[in-house]
Amino acid sequence: MDISSVLREQIGDRRFKTVLADPPWRFVNRTGKMAPEHRRLSRYQTLSTREVCAVRVSLACEPAAHLYLWVPNALFPEGLEVLRAWGFVYNSKSSSLQSREPAFDVS
């Protein structure tokens, strides 16, 4: 089953004005210690840019929807490609700092 079919199955006929997407990006250096598919980590399977572009996100969108797309800085050009493939227009970029440590003690 392709990802677009899974998306359609999960959302049914619902449409959203805001879409938050964090695709499973595939890095060129797939053996680097931060790459999701590094052999010691095996966090999750990744998709090529072409595969991410092929996901029919428009199935989940209202006509005037906006997209928050998480893209690693190293893959920013690919992020723009995905954005266009999904029918969105680039507007602005915001940055965040991602930490592997918890922001606060939850115990």
Assembly level: single chain
Per DSSP E runs of 2 or more residues, the count of β-strands stands at 2
In which range does the helix fraction lie? 10-25%
Radius of gyration: 16 Å
Overall 3D shape? globular
Structural class: alpha+beta
* Main pleated-sheet profile: 2 strands, parallel
Write structural notes for this entry.
With 107 residues, the protein is an alpha+beta fold. Helix content is 23%, strand content 14%. The protein is globular. The chain starts with a helix and ends in a 22-residue tail after the last helix.
Summarize the structure.
This protein is of the alpha+beta class. The protein has 3 helices and 2 strands; from the N terminus they run αβαβα.
What keyword list fits this structure?
107 residues; two-stranded parallel sheet; globular
Describe the secondary structure blueprint for this structure.
Layout: H1 3-11, E1 16-21, H2 49-54, E2 61-69, H3 76-85
